[in-house]
Amino acid sequence: MDDAAPDGSCGREPPSVGPKFSGMSTTADPGTHRKHVPAPSPTDFLGIDALLTGDERLIRDTVRAFVRDRVLPNIAEWFEDHTFPREMIKEIGELGLLGMHLQGYGCAGTSAVAYGLACLELEAGDSGFRSFVSVQGSLAMYAISAHGSEEQKQTWLPRMAAGDAIGCFGLTEWDFGSDPGGMRTVARRDGSDYVISGSKAWITNGGIADLAIVWARLATDNGDGAIRGFIVPKETKGFSTRNIERKLSLRASITSELIFDECRVPAGAILPEVSGLRGPLSCLNEARYGIVWGALGAARSCYESALDYAKTRVQFGKPIAGFQLTQEKLVNMMLEINKGLLTALHIGRLKDDGRAHPSHVSFGKLNNVREALAICREARTILGASGITLEYPVIRHMNNLESVLTYEGTSEVHTLILGQAITGESAFS
């Protein structure tokens, strides 16, 4: 290599900048090195707040204030007493949170991102409140909005948006959770009516609902009838509920069994615009989307609690925030919350653009709930024994997320959905 120049350039002229890039600076503006950049916020390290619109921030801040003033002062007591404060439902409706992402019929018609931010703030209070809003809006109301008749929409949606009528969503059965296609609840045609027989389990809002969206298989001789949705008011003869007690998770939420004993409904109760599992699965996708955001609210609450605690808890002569292992835990929490928020925001923007695939939502649900639960568990270790008491939110959020990890599709189900998306092969059957 005897033709090399002393500067290592091999004696050749550097390539000229082509016309495509002419006029573009190839070096950083020296002025940028002198500009003062503020230190990142511990609670918004990547400045994600700046990616939101003014309306989105307003909705988020309104829900955050509601949670701060109306939920947090009493949530430990409600969790311990296993109660959901029904008296607050009208207030939630007046805030416009019920079916807020739906259009018309008294619904606010907000963006998917705004709805996600509301879910995040609600779950920062407690998963029970986000679950109530999700079931009401993304399951029961969405089922009517997307698959109901005009008469059904006019009858139910304005009342549900206002909080005057509470809905629940009956899909899961004791023996059929991840495999809803195996459901045993049947609807038999009898004249102009349908007669529903069977039961549903683990139904949020079931014991306080004014109506249930119930999915049943139409009775046929060979048992392979289509799955259809029905609107069943609570006063319908043959319909009863039984609350599931002794829960150690989602205690500030009503979870029930729905029982149908020759429950007769008119033909007008059927949701006319959908048949098959596509109906309930479309609703589940809406609720899963809210969880993508909501789980991060629980994670944020635990992270902030652990951060505050670490700064004030003194051991070996200094705050434990000054120890390397504690900092590593806090940094890992911060990393996953920020990554999760970027994931949620991106999926939300895709949804608002009409470009979100159900597998995108599975991506967010699988990742964000899994990481949120890990964050809550790690936060508990920073708080030590204090972390197992209801004086702090950590053990409550941690217990709640054990349920969130399972409902609206287990981690295993979402893993297989994503596996099918990337391989083209179904592992379900």
Q: What is the distance, rounded to the nearest whole angstrom, between the alpha carbons of the first and last residues?
A: 63 Å
Number of helices: 12
Secondary structure tally: strands: 11
What is the assigned CATH homologous superfamily of the largest domain?
Butyryl-CoA Dehydrogenase, subunit A, domain 3
Shape: globular
How many domains is the backbone divided into? 3
Unreliable runs, pLDDT <50, ≥5 residues?
1-11
The CATH C-level class name of the largest domain: Mainly Alpha
CATH topology of the largest domain: Butyryl-CoA Dehydrogenase, subunit A, domain 3
CATH structural architecture of the largest domain:
Up-down Bundle
Question: How much of the sequence is in beta strands?
Answer: 5-15%
Sketch the major β-sheet. Answer: 7 strands, mixed
- Mean pLDDT across all residues, rounded? 93
Order of helices and strands: HHHHEEHHHEEEEEEEHEEHHHH
Radius of gyration of CA atoms, rounded to a whole number: 26 Å
Give the class from helix and strand content and strand pairing. alpha+beta
Task: Report helical residue fraction.
Answer: 40-55%
Structure characterization notes:
With 429 residues, this protein is α+β, with helices and mostly antiparallel strands. It folds into three domains: 48-166, Acyl-CoA dehydrogenase/oxidase, N-terminal domain (Butyryl-Coa Dehydrogenase, subunit A, domain 1, Orthogonal Bundle); 169-269, Butyryl-CoA Dehydrogenase, subunit A, domain 2; 278-423, Butyryl-CoA Dehydrogenase, subunit A, domain 3 (Up-down Bundle), CATH 1.20.140.10. The protein has helices spanning 30-34, 54-71, 75-81, 89-94, 112-125, 127-147, 150-162, 278-312, 324-352, 358-383, 394-404, 411-423; strands spanning 103-104, 107-108, 167-170, 186-190, 193-204, 211-218, 227-233, 239-243, 255-266, 314-315, 318-319.
